[in-house]
Records
---
Amino acid sequence: MSIRTLKTFFLFVVVVMINGMLLHAQTEQQVVDLRGVWKFEIGDQQKFADPKFDDSQWTEIFVPADWENEGFPGYDGYGWYRKKFILPPTAKEKRLFIHIVADDVCGVYINGQLLGEGGRFPPEYRTAYNIEHKFYIPSRFLVYGKENVIAVRVYDETLNGGIVRGKTGIYEHRDEIDYVVRFPDFWKFKKGDNEQWKDPTLDDSKWQELIVPAAWDFQGFRNYDGFGWYRVTFNIPSTTKNESLILLLGKIDDIDQVYFNGKLIGETGKIRADGSVRRIREEYQDYRVYRIPKSLIKYGQKNVLAVRVFDNMIDGGIYEGPVGIVTEQGFKKISQKLNQENGNSLERLLDKIFNE
């Protein structure tokens, strides 16, 4: 392999693996400002997430702020927040996320549906006190032109607690990624492991539906470690026949094998033929980027993607985007933008490594 070929390959690997900026080129616009007065109650009852729950007797406090400064000095433990908001009908086509910072742990519900959690509630307590959380809101969870209810469960271990700082609102995220295929919010999912589940003719109509991207732990599989399979069906337009296509699968916890129309097109980590697994590094932090062989694509027809996932511990599944299909040229544009924003530092680094 020549130095230039090796450099080109290494540059591609570095660009694919680099965190954050590569695949998350996004702009944000606030749709609903959630700062202001919320209803609040100490204690912990799951019925507080129900949009029909009567919170008229709850205390009113300001958000964002430490609850210690809003009438609950020295309180450590559970507390629930609730607030109503209205989305205009024009928001139906937008990809919406809620931004929130809570101390120490939070769970966010929209109209009774859990979007996700930041940190871990007891007994597997893990703080996330200084992290801005962004939870995707599937459109089917929302009503437009009418009242919606957000409920936030918070656990504070010590010191200050509550929805404490930072952005507090609902934002539209506009990807700068030009998708050929943007996958639906909900994919088919089945716990367990059977290699036959890669078959594109398999009837998965009785499988459960999960939000993608979002950890499976918050969608009925809490604390599940082991194998799970995702499946999604989609069309690829015939106008892309002359394009090389790239599959973006975001981040997956922990390792995966990806089948396109029944054929393996890539994997991160290693799942052996006997079902045993081998982790090579911290794979859960890697973005998944796989090339789709043209010979496997059914243009203008149904295609099936099956993703076999093994989770070793804590949260599992396809937990962070972006997910979709782009052209190779579209992928290169994202890479070029990253390189420009970093002053061609990647090129300079590679020049130094290869003495060019």
Note: Helices lie at 3-17, 328-341, 345-354.
---
Amino acid sequence: MTKFKQILDEDEILITFCIIDDITKAMGMQGDKQQKMSESEVLTVAFISHRYFGGNYQATLSFLKASNQSLFKNLLSKSRFTRRLHRWFGLLPSLFHLVSALKRKISLSSLYFIDSFPVSVCENIRIRRCRLAKGEQYRGYIASKRVYFYGLRVHIICDEEKFVHEFVIVDGRLHDLEGWANASLYYLSEGDKVIADSAYTRYDFEEEMRREGIEWEPIRRKGSRRYQGEEFEAWKRRARRVVETVGSVLRLYLGKRIQAVTLKGFLLKIMMAIISYNLHRLFCLAF
């Protein structure tokens, strides 16, 4: 077994490359024939970076150049790689939806979970010097930890197999209900159930979902109008650990600190981390 095989799962990388290559062909994004590194290879290297290196593209490229030349024979420099990846910024949502569609062909779920987690642009003490994002709209509050942060908030909805079906990235200041207002929820069907945190409580929205045959079940406090007993609420709290685990793993895919010089690059890394996570989950479910 080679050193490369010990550190990275070569089988997963090859299968992921094939999936990405088929999707890019379906999207008509094959790139120029004169390019030494294809679009599929660029996206696969980005997948490796978030899967194994916390989204550090420089470390990923250096490792691949030093350890194995059989998979990627024409690796780009860090700056050229970043420019090529930035071309995908507007297309990453479409790529995400196509990967999600593949998962639904493998297996369907009827139980979903929704949660949000903060992604800080910088430490609070450095807000005044931050050049990546400026404005009060980025000042958010984490109620569970009773701390403030400066950055963005990512809302995700996943199924019981820990696959993310939708994400929404909003300013840190927005409340969970405001942030999730733009979600499509197109993948939900009659009979599905969504377990949410108490912050997602909104009775008119629950009624609207119920008319469509979907149960929207936020965790309710004792004494609230729709409290259904401690046993059911305890089950919801236990079940929600799935999405909490997903959020923790996504933070690992983003690394301790997101290396970006523009807000666009910051957003790109968040989207690429979620797509990379889903590709890994797709591999785990299929193989």
Note: The chain has a mean pLDDT of 92.
---
Amino acid sequence: MHGAPWARRAALAGALVAGLLATGCGSSRPGFTQTGQGSYYANKFRGRPTASGAPYRPSQMTAAHNTLPFGTRIRVTNVRNGRSVKVTVNDRGPHVAGRIVDVSGKAARRLDLVRAGVVPVRLEVIRAAPRGGSR
């Protein structure tokens, strides 16, 4: 049983990391804010399944976020021009360092971020995911 203490510590560390990932690094409560870079989905993703299982539809007001539960409503504001949109989280991402949200094509046009591709944004949770919403 010489390795047992090490194995217990490793299991405990793994459980701690899993718990942090499951709860997310931020809060999904209304009023939670986050700032960083925002981008949008390329059209090549049209129709492909999102992490929630719903197909990506550029014409819908949706977004990807790494930790907020699916179904969370957020307001995304383009810090450069002050334009904002309300979107529903239904996917995971973006998977690029420094980026906090990917928005659908429709949301990107309303935010006027298509030409730039990536802009500084502020997001705010305006409605928590319905009970039973998936993480």
Note: The radius of gyration is 17 Å.
